[in-house]
Design a protein that fits this description.
Blueprint: H1 2-27, H2 32-48, E1 73-78, E2 81-86, E3 92-96
Antiparallel strand pairs: 1-2, 2-3
The structure holds zinc ion (ZN).
Length: 101
């Protein structure tokens, strides 16, 4: 019973996270700071309910939480890795490129 409730709670949390990140993406060119606040909120929910933010939604800087925006990041490709530099705080993220067949 309790376990089931917890599962439901987590599913709800995941939905809220998804929604918040969608909202963040939608307004990131109009209000970058509000967009960032949505990300922070999504992270708070993720931590509280111990759920992971899905990889495809992690389109933000994990240091300053500003969402990635083409004019606020620098993207380089080096040794089959994409290197994303956040121009807001200077944090660097390296993403391996998957081989396409
Ligand atoms: Zn940053």
């Amino acid at each position: 019973m309790l376990r089931r409730e917890k599962k439901l709670e987590r599913e709800l949390a995941e939905l809220r996270i998804k929604k918040l990140i969608e909202m963040s993406e939608k307004i990131k060119f109009e209000d970058y700071d509000l967009s960032r606040r949505y990300i922070i909120l999504a992270r708070k929910i993720a931590m509280k309910y111990r759920v992971k933010i899905p990889k495809e939604l992690r389109n933000f800087c994990k240091k300053c939480f500003y969402p990635y925006r083409h004019d606020r990041i620098r993207v380089r490709i080096k040794k089959s890795r994409v290197i994303i530099t956040c121009l807001n705080c200077g944090n660097v993220k390296r993403v391996p490129i998957r081989n396409r067949r």
